[in-house]
Amino acid sequence: MAFRKDFLWGGATAANQCEGGYDQGGRGLANVDLAPVGKDRIGVITGEQKMFDFDDDHFYPAKNAIDMYHRYKEDIALFGEMGFKTYRLSIAWSRIFPKGDETEPNEDGLKFYEDLFKECHKYNIEPLVTITHFDCPMHLVEKYGAWRSRELVGFYENLCQVIFNRYKGLVKYWLTFNEINMILHAPFMGAGLYFEPGENKEQVKYQAAHHELVASAIATKIAHEVDPENKVGCMLAAGAYYPYSCNPEDVWASRKNDRENYFFIDVQSRGEYPAYAIKELERNGIEIKMADGDAELLKNHTVDFISFSYYSSRVATTDPDLLEKTEGNIFASIKNPYLKASEWGWQIDPLGLRITLNDLYDRYQKPLFIVENGLGAVDTPDENGYVEDDYRINYLAEHLQAMKDAVELDGVDLLGYTTWGCIDLVSAGTGEMKKRYGFIYVDRDNDGNGSLKRSKKKSFDWYKKVITTNGEDLSND
User: Looking at the record's lineage, which domain of life comes first (predicted)?
Assistant: First the structure.
């Protein structure tokens, strides 16, 4: 058998993409609430366009999302029926601390997640909790400039003290920051960073990243002190870069692109800034302000495991004539002529998952956890809400086979696998509902219309069989 007996099969969501209830239970406004659907979304999430409150000209899908805030019992029951061993979800920071800088937490928010975790345990589902899945309370954005301010480290530490103590015994798997490298590509969505005219954006991004890296080390320290059973992971938006050709220039370009993303995980896993990153920062005139004790914190409190999202591989070249791009997880790449693509232009590369697993395991020699993988597609339900999504089953089966090969043939130590958007939710990249990933169809459209009724797709029973057989039976029959 390829996978360990206690392999953690499940699915993943993010609070801002599924919960809704943006103004209920004492919750405060967050950066992730303010990303509208439509042409202005990219400007907002990249910190180029200022949107610090709702206006009447845009639709903001995160406000209500799929209303899991009120329907989580129904949704977790469906996850239980599929046989989930784990459910990856995130905490909305502004539910616990509505402004972010309070000394006392919001009890309604704490109780909501406590009840949700207890509901998971009812079905023997182990919660895997992302502490920050891009969320930053808007008060912290407006008053402190979000993660560009050192003060956020203390506010995050306060959040961690509260949740690790409150949920001791209910949660033992934690991720500190979702796709921490996304700060480079979508800085407002990823870390609440909005840029004023004339600001040195790279300086701001890397200083903010340093604050997050220190906060991640502090979180790991607290988690282990509160409960030695706690396991803490980091999280990377992954996907190996291929050189477009065997031209050494292309090979070097791919290496540099990989390093840009690995940098964060190098620090979280190895405990220090790597030499190549120090040199690159120096070359670009970026000076990281470190406080006394930062180096020791990073060195002494590295993560227990490495988690990552994988949707596709990427391609790098130095050839200026190769300009055809393909879409991807927020950031585009040179198009790979050997690969097919999804309806959204994301190239499909199952072998790339095996390559990425091997690259990460060779590099860090720590257990790995795939916490996002899936196919965004337009689903057409029948009158009962049933979707015959063979395209999704085929995509997932091919990626699971590649994952199996990495474990069985290459010896990669893998803890678990959670598909992205196990229930249809709002897309992070585009804000759309029609870009669906789930095993469960949710009746809601891009404009917020629909009954929110849940119904099972064909892939629901397929994934149930995969889990039952611990990944041995991937057939679609």
Answer: Bacteria
Inter-residue contact 227 to 301 (CB < 8 Å) = no
Nearest to 199 by CA among 160, 148, 242: 148
pLDDT tens digits along 220-276 = 999 999 999 999 999 999 999 999 999 999 999 999 999 999 999 999 999 999 999
- Distance, in Å, from the CA atom of 41 to the CA atom of 30, rounded to the nearest integer, reads 15
Please say whether the beta carbons of 409 and 351 come within 8 A: no
Neighbours of 149 (CB within 10 A): 18
Distance CA 122, CA 226 (A): 24
Mean pLDDT on 69-82:
98
User: Which residues in 49-81 are b (16+ Cβ under 10 Å) and which e?
Assistant: eebeeeeeebebbbbbbbbbbebbeebbebbbe
Q: What is the pLDDT of residue 333?
A: 83
Beta carbons of 247 and 193 less than 8 angstroms apart:
no
CA quadruple 200, 201, 205, 211: dihedral, nearest 10: 40
The SS3 of residue 365 is: coil
Contacts of 428 (CB under 8 A, 6+ apart): 14, 17, 134, 189, 330
Sign of CA dihedral 294, 164, 149, 204: positive
> CB–CB of 142/148 below 8 Å?
no
Q: Distance (Å, rounded) from C-alpha 352 to C-alpha 160?
A: 35
Domains identified in the chain and CATH numbers: 8-468 (3.20.20.80)
φ and ψ at residue 89, rounded to 5 degrees: -140, 170
Helices in 322-368 by DSSP H: which ranges?
Answer: 350-364
Supply the residues annotated as catalytic.
Answer: 372
pLDDT at 433 over 70: yes
